[in-house]
């Protein structure tokens, strides 16, 4: 594969939303309820809309679900991507249903004639295709050619379908190579980034539950983003889609790539604490979205980590012997008792 296309980064548009060069890194997730339960689907989608989901991948395993897919597409402003495996007819049906993007898996979609039909339909309707290789579903032939190197096998799988797309003159592509191994995923995406200009979807697949899943996803995604790799991200957790969106947004905000809400800084506490910091944080978190999103809110347990250490905070609160003190950019602006914290914060918000 010698062709390097245009080495300048490309972008694609899914329902008018830009992905790739010149656009923000998008946070996406996958619908975790079956399409046939349309009432629950719509309810979950409404939650995701409120959380700021920017792209929603939806499993489309049966032609019988075409009507439900159409209803979903019409019911939300979130761009939808149909997730297709094994049967090329499912991709054609999703495109006919009005889906603006489809994901095909090179591990189980190898019929070249059928793939050409998908490309033709995508061209006709302006549909974006994501080539999404996954370490768990790669054909053994890719591993053989890569001499057992999973990262190289992932790249070979993606490249095989890129070439087919080139043969058909199609380049409205997003590419993706994911595995449960952080190292293999990182290596594969470095290679793809070096070779192709297409937007990259990144993540660590099957990262797991709880702290383990959040940590593994965060480390892997941050490693790639810190090297300029990644145009859309998904945090793949054994948890709700809403949790995936929240963690994805926090990763981007922690890296300074995007800002979704005010930043909350709080001390880990120690034996000097004058106040229960966890209780105070729980009082602040529900109203965090009420503050300007470029603000930093600091919650400190005592005078050591109070106004001086959090002097850059737009608004801070620290425990004292007699209650709490509020400060802005290191300057004390108010005091109150622990019992009056919520009332005081609400008053401050009203005067922003």
Automatic annotation (TrEMBL):
Q: Which organism is it from?
A: Thermovirga lienii (strain ATCC BAA-1197 / DSM 17291 / Cas60314)
Taking every annotated instance into account, which residue ranges of this chain make up the domain IspG C-terminal? 264-350
Question: Which SUPFAM superfamilies does the record associate with it?
Answer: Dihydropteroate synthetase-like, Nitrite and sulphite reductase 4Fe-4S domain-like
Tell me the cofactors it needs. [4Fe-4S] cluster
The name of this protein is 4-hydroxy-3-methylbut-2-en-1-yl diphosphate synthase (flavodoxin)
Q: InterPro entries, per this entry?
A: Dihydropteroate_synth-like_sf (IPR011005), IspG_bac (IPR016425), IspG_bac-typ (IPR004588), IspG_C (IPR058579), IspG_TIM (IPR058578), NO2/SO3_Rdtase_4Fe4S_sf (IPR045854)
The record's EC number reads 1.17.7.3
Pathway given for this chain reads:
Isoprenoid biosynthesis; isopentenyl diphosphate biosynthesis via DXP pathway; isopentenyl diphosphate from 1-deoxy-D-xylulose 5-phosphate: step 5/6
Q: Which Gene3D superfamilies match?
A: Dihydropteroate synthase-like, Sulfite Reductase Hemoprotein, domain 1
Domain IspG TIM-barrel per the UniProt entry, residue ranges: 11-249
Free-text comment on the cofactor: Binds 1 [4Fe-4S] cluster.
